Amino acid sequence: MKKQKLLFAGSISLLLLFIFSTCKAADELHDTYPPLPEAVAALDPDLRVSVTKVAVAEWEEGSNFYYAFKPAFKDPKVGFIIYPGALVDPIAYAPTARAIAQEGYLVVIVKMVQDLAVLSYTRADKIITDYPAISKWIIGGHSLGGSMACAYAKQFSDKLQGVVIWAAFPSEGFRIDDKPLKVISIYGSKDGAADEIKAEKIYLPPDAQLVEIEGGNHTQFGYYWDGVTENFVQPGDNPADITREEQQQQIIKATADFLAQFKENTCPVVYLLGNADTRVGTLRQFRDTMLAQSAVGKELIALYYGNGAGITAFLEQKPLLKACARKVLDVSIPIVELLMAF
């Protein structure tokens, strides 16, 4: 065990040396990449997602906070922690975090010391402690944040169930191929390090998923830029062949699909229709735009989700009632659509 800790500490030291020697060669460390306006707008709470900036007294001043995104009508049991890319403002990942939270997860974006995850990669400890109701944790990150998410997973695999890597790879020093974790690695075909990402898959568990986004690049995993250049592309990356919105849709879908394996189904409608059924979206819209507008409606929503797990468990044991409930939905949804049309 002592030898393993020394090797891990050595890996961290080498990575730090590499980062700062690279910065020195570049003369000066550039400022943090600011978020795009749409990322800043994604911090505003709405009827579907609450957004909280949480202060952490014991963290270094200037980086002593994180952003928590929580679905408004659910008490999630699965949490997803995001480590930002090197020198990227954490707000740059707000649109992505928000979209994933809407699927029923607690999503947290961590602010890092000097915006470098390598300097504070154990901050997930605080997040996990702050949310004792979360039963399953998945850690992830973009670029250096993804690599350091692997570093955390290597050292604290007992606290996690999975790892999500965006446009990153663990390298041999942070290999997690021997850890009992579910892992997905998502990257763009135009990423400047696409070959390394594919090659370093050997350091992930044998059943790790590798998802390539055709035409996507490294930069469009977040909503950040240099504050000047339209269609900004990070140094070392390649221009994308698809828009940021198109790439983000695929990132969000692949990530949410991966996270779904950890979530207990507490929504009877999803249980009956399946998450891919477009009518689920119709009922969610009815919930948000009509039911949630009144105190009684909010109470009904809370009652529904509060008893969702029990309802689905009951239906699972009663196939005939399950079939009847499905038919009731088939008949009711057109009526809901009609109500929404007025």
Describe the structure using short key phrases:
12 helices; eight-stranded mixed β-sheet; disordered N terminus; globular; alpha/beta; 2 domains; 342 residues; 41% helix; Rossmann fold
Polypeptide structure, described:
The protein has 342 residues and is an alpha/beta fold. It has two domains: 32-262, Alpha/Beta hydrolase fold, catalytic domain (Rossmann fold, 3-Layer(aba) Sandwich), CATH 3.40.50.1820; 268-341, no CATH class. It is 41% helix and 14% strand. It contains twelve helices and eight strands. It has helices spanning 2-25, 37-41, 94-101, 124-130, 144-155, 194-199, 244-259, 268-273, 278-289, 295-306, 308-317, 319-341; strands at residues 49-55, 65-71, 78-83, 106-110, 136-142, 162-166, 182-188, 209-213. The chain has an eight-stranded mixed sheet, with helices on both faces. Strand 3, helix 3 (94-101) and strand 4 (106-110) form a beta-alpha-beta unit. The termini are far apart. 37% of the residues are buried.
